[in-house]
Amino acid sequence: MILTKAQYDEIAQCLVSVPPTRQSLRKLKQRFPSQSQATLLSIFSQEYQKHIKRTHAKHHTSEAIESYYQRYLNGVAKNGAAPVLLDLANEVDYAPSLMARLILERFLQEHEETPPSKSVINSMLRDPSQIPDGVLANQVYQCIVNDCCYGPLVDCIKHAIGHEHEVMLRDMLLEKNLSFLDEDQLRAKGYDKTPDFILQVPVAVEGHIIHWIESKASFGDECSHHAYLHDQFWSYWNRDGSQSCSGWSGIPGLGDSSASASQSARIKGVGKHFLPGIFVKYVCR
Amino acid sequence: MAAVLESLLREEVSVAAVVRWIARSTQGSKDNPGEAAALSSLRPLRKEFVPFLLNFLREQSSRVLPQGPPTPAKASGASAALPGRPGGPPRGSRGARSQLFPPTEALSTAAESPVARRGGRRRVPGPARERGGRSLEEGVSVESLPGAGSRRLRGSGSPSRPSLTLSDPPNLSNLEEFPPVGSVPPGPTGRTKPSRRINPTPVSEERSLSKPKTCFTSPPISCVPSSQPSALDTRPWGLGLPPGCRSLQEEREMLRKERSKQLQQSPTPTCPTPELGSPLLNWTGGLTDELADPARVSSRQRLELVALVYSSCIAENLVPNLFLELFFVFQLLTARRMVTAKDNDFELSPGALDSLESPLFQSIHDCVFFAVQVLECHFQVLSNLDKGTLKLLAENERLLCFSPALQGRLRAAYEGSVAKVSLVMPPSAQAVSFQPETDNRANFSSDRAFHTFKKQRDVFYEVLREWEDHHEEAGWDFEKGLGSRIRAMMGQLSAACSHSHFVRLFQKQLLQMCQSPGGAGGTVLGEAPDVLSMLGADKLGRLWRLQERLVTPQSSGGPCPPPTFPGCQGFFRDFILSASSFQFNQHLMDSLSLKIRELNGLTLPQHEPSDEDGESDVDWQGERRQFAVVLLSLRLLAKFLGFVAFLPYRGPEPPPTGELQDSILALRSQVPPVLDVRTLLQRGLQARRAVLTVPWLVEFLSFADHVVPLLDYYQGIFTLLLRLHRSLVLSQENERKMCFLNKLLLLAVLGWLFQIPTVPEDLFFLEEGPSDAFEMDIVAPEHGLDSMPVVDQQLLYTCCPYIGELRKLLALWVSGSSGRSGGFVRKITPTTTTTSSLGAQPPQTSQGLQAQLAQAFFHNQPPSLRRTVEFVAERIGSNCVKHIKATLVADLVRQVESLLQEQLVTQGEEGGDPAQLLEILYSRLCPHGAQALALGREFCQRKSPGAVRALLPEETPAAVLSSAENIAVGLATEKACAWLSANITALIRREVKAAVSRTLRAQGPEPAARGERRGCSRACEHHAPLPSHLISEIKDVLSLAVGPRDSDEGVSPEHLEQLVCQLGQTLQCRQVRGGICHLRAAFLCPCVRPDNQSHAGSGPILAAVIMVMPMVSIFPPQFLCPPAEQHLAKCSVELASFLVADQIPILGPPAQHRLERGQARRLLHMLLSLWKEHFQGPVPLQLLLSPRNVGLLADTRPREWDLLLFLLRELVEKGLMGRMEIEACLGSLHQAQWPRDFAEELATLSNLLLAEPHLPEPQLRACELVQSNRGTVLAQS
Prior knowledge:
The complex is a heterodimer.
Chain A: H1 5-14, H2 22-31, H3 37-59, H4 62-78, H5 84-92, H6 96-111, H7 118-126, H8 134-146, H9 152-175, E1 180-182, H10 183-189, E2 197-205, E3 208-216, H11 222-240, E4 244-247, H12 261-264
Parallel strand pairs in A: 3-4
Antiparallel strand pairs in A: 1-2, 2-3
Helix pairs in contact in A: 4-6, 5-6, 6-8
Chain B: H1 2-9, H2 15-23, H3 33-40, H4 49-60, H5 105-108, E1 115-116, E2 122-123, H6 126-140, H7 148-154, H8 245-265, H9 277-285, H10 300-315, H11 322-333, H12 364-377, H13 379-383, H14 387-394, H15 397-402, H16 404-416, H17 436-439, H18 447-470, H19 478-492, H20 496-514, H21 527-535, H22 540-549, H23 569-579, H24 582-600, H25 613-646, H26 658-668, H27 677-686, H28 690-701, H29 712-727, H30 740-754, H31 772-777, H32 793-799, H33 804-815, H34 849-859, H35 863-907, H36 914-925, H37 930-951, H38 958-1003, H39 1007-1010, H40 1027-1042, H41 1053-1068, H42 1079-1084, H43 1098-1108, H44 1122-1140, H45 1157-1174, H46 1187-1195, H47 1202-1213, H48 1219-1229, H49 1236-1251, H50 1258-1267, H51 1270-1276
Helix pairs in contact in B: 2-10, 8-9, 10-12, 11-12, 11-33, 14-16, 14-33, 18-19, 18-20, 19-23, 20-24, 21-33, 24-25, 25-28, 27-28, 27-29, 28-30, 35-37, 35-38, 36-38, 37-38, 40-41, 40-44, 41-45, 44-45, 44-46, 45-47, 47-50, 48-49
């Protein structure tokens, strides 16, 4: 299923300054009943990430952190059971999970002798039970389960989606009788950067020769295509020749609407003619 | 010198005798005694004859070829006044040579910038220098030469040098006396040239005949400076302009000045062809072409004689550059008209009776006659030119007019010719693919180095792409655009090994992009003249302006262009320059040298011309192509090697002189050459592979700096090259000798080399005739590469695009517009010989008898047989290694896996020390490696004969076939076994290690929780929801439970139940995972998600995958990846905690916002069984008793402990948690701060649980607990 650019923009429009919470998503679903939750969530997440990238810095000044921390302390002093941290995050327009991390870091700084390492923080965020302060643990946990764009759970979901789509792509390749090497095999051969699949026998799709296929489960808007292009695609091209990229979560853009393996991998030859944001399709399951 | 020519013209001596006299050091006994006597008196001048003749012809033609080649001019210089210059003031006797140089040069080379050299040799920069300057600019990318502003002007007409004048005006070339306006005062070296000054240097009459004239290129128009009208009489070439011409002359001069102003203002360096004055002459003069008439030739006999001598000199390779002479002759042939053809011209000359004093070419008719005479003698060369040139030549009406016979032969040659030459460039920007053998992690010292290289690769291609996109844009500068990025990248290459990796990539990319003819970019034959002719003469000004705007000027500019980096090569040159990294350069040189050695030593197919009729054609195409690829690659590599190797020594400053030079020479002679080219050349000559070795050597040498030719080492090389050049007499046809086109290629490249600015031009004439010793030294193999027709016109023109200038010249004639064409030619100055002997090395024979037998066998067979056998051996050998890997090694790996399982089982959870474990495994498995050799031998034995049989013609005799098979088996076995014996142990170790770590990883960190791996049942339809969906759903429920939530939010009990059910499905529906041993299971049960289609076709694909990657255990993918499973486990535990604490908001009647106890227990039960049965990873059950989750209970009123108690009991019951573990968790709970009553209750619970005896019937207990409530629990305590 293809999402048009207009549709995407419409959805994105609704997401301006909306906190990344369950409630927001629910409203979004009511607004766009024809879109699946996964699609909406994907767009939400993408748009929200852009927003955070823009505003990230201002929450990380020492003054901001200090004031957040004080507000948190005051809040929990009044009522430890209230969603202090979550409300704070929503109020200052910051992702709850990130706010939780901020406060946790600050808290640990105060209570530990050595500044907390990143891995300690991450581990505490993954399992708030490890947080020495029970109230903070609850607050952090609340932030994490309520955040639909950031946090270890969301990360895991994203990772799982990526993995699942890779498996689906593999199945489609098998189905189409295409012989390929997957990432593990390529790694074993010593490749440094690998796409998901390298076709052992290149195929031509819509007039383009495809040597490799990369599945991207995240939403393929123009900006992220740019980023991917820069980070990965050229690296592949430098090694394997032209390629295919298949985005699975829809795109503002072009293309037709079937979801067979070969077509969902809509291809553009890489090179000077590679146009970002053109080739992604949405695949419904 | 002229005496010889004179006596020739007077028919005192025969042409043959003269040529013999010139070519041979000793006079032939056949000579007529009279002739011998006449010539022997002139013997000391023998070597000066050819340069004299060439210069003489150029002078004579000066009026005919006013347009001249692009930069025919000699730079003017203050030669006469230079200190340190050998040779003194004018000497007296004509022809008598008492000094090393004819001192007359001091005056004759008014336009030269002489440079005193060691041994008194001097060189003439002239146009060559000018071009050299250009090439330096390109090569070194430094700002232009000193006086660059004046460079263009220099070309404007300075070559003119009056030779027959009587007057003796001031020496205008003396810079000290006549400093040029606005130019830098001449330095001690005198290199700075007067910018606007034309130097009609006067010479005394007595020497006018004996000395070589300025240069033997076609002279431009006379260039009398307007500021020096008094010097009018000193017209160039001794032929005065009639008074009426003066105004015209002045006009031209003005125009020329205007033009040069424009050119000076142009920001970019102009293309190599801005010959300013001369084109104007034709275009503005409105002169029409003169018809040439054979009947009006003035002195046939004289012309014939000179043409014969000239032709003979060319044929004997006594001239440095064959194609330059041809170009000159073509110029004569296509001359438009005589500039100032007045019959009384030569009356001005004194001694008109002297046959040399009267102009040789008195009219266009004479020129054309002479040209045709010469061309007739060189029909063979002409007939081997490309088809386009032949056509133009055959269609030339003058040729038809003067020699219908030659025209007929040319037409026939044209019709029979297949030598179509095209230099079309294919787009090439394919990246070098990842090379698993060398780019592998294992080849890097550290992860860091590996990743650095990874990044560098990307930067390199980014830079390359950017260059591709921008380099043709005006105003784009490589250094500005990319320099800093390149240097930053180079800065990261710290380890020596990373340098070599990068250099390998660089070199591969270089070869990939540039080795194709098109990659060399450059000129496409015939293109430039077409543009010119399209525009017509009057539009040329526009073309000029247009061209000034072009970044890349069109036209290659003359038959002797300087070495350049056309097309993609420019990128690599600029990259090297911008990188300016010593380490990089060194590694690059190492790598290039290695590759050159490798390619140069490549065994190219030996071929016997009369081999097999049908087959050889097909074969030859391939073999020619292969040769061409190797040759072009070598040339490219050598060019860059030369560029990098001599880079530190080259600069814009003039070459050193005097003592400075001596000290530099002393220093440089200590430096070993970057590549032992002399030995390679000697070997190449001995092995009769000159056609391969010399062209790349020429490329290498073309980048040498000025000092290089003076070094003993390189002098030896030049001596060899000169002898080779002399020995390549085209007319000598001999089966065993070199093929014609091979010779032509060598002559072309050598001729080009001799015109390179840095090569001293006197070098050529320093050699004594062809050394017989040279011929003798070569103990040549029967059939060297030289005697095979490896070169075709395509390759010839690809290597020497400047030969295409001939065609341009003819095309210009046809198109009717004359103009910028031609090339620069340098003056030749004879000097004495320093003969160095040529040491021959005995051929090395150290091959075994068996190998010799095999060689002998192949010798008698068609080359295709050898190729087939070698190919088969190569492939089978390689396949053998792969086969061993896939069978023997894979089996061993499988053994490892099972051994490992045993080990793990016997050692229990300890697992043992992995390193120790590995050593045990190695010691048990590596001995099996010995089998590899036997297996390999067997494999080669089994596979090779069939392959050979399949590839050879069916009619191959049985004996030949079996020999071929045996050799193939032997070679394949040799190859395979060599690899196996060297690598098998390492390979086994590596694979075992990988397998162990894989197995250990797959086992997971907690052996206890590992359990048995399960796949979904065959009946499974794989409709379970995706893990990502489930996590998302559970997360939603958790967030509802945690809140904050709206009053209308909640979940239905059914939804909860469904969720847990789905979790079960997802956990159950997973595909088989495990090592390679499980693969068959995957075949049997093609359990492919998501649509449950049966995949008839999947078998072969999997099989293919296995074939290719036998060493990798294949994990059939499953949707549930370990991280997702971990999170699911954690979420399910959290969910259970919320169930226990009754915190999940339930949708339903407003009164009832809580889950029924029964429902809750049922859900817990389901979760328990999931934890027990379906999770394959560890489930963090201890989280149930984490303070946070237990704390949930604290908030409920009234607190209900029964569910927790139930859960804990069940955990113990199912063996999911031990009592001790629970006890520990409960114990640690006490440390937290709780409300007093809660702490008490907790303690009670703890006691209760621990006090319980083990009961065998959990169901019963569960029922019991259904009724229990907090009160009863507490009561029991």
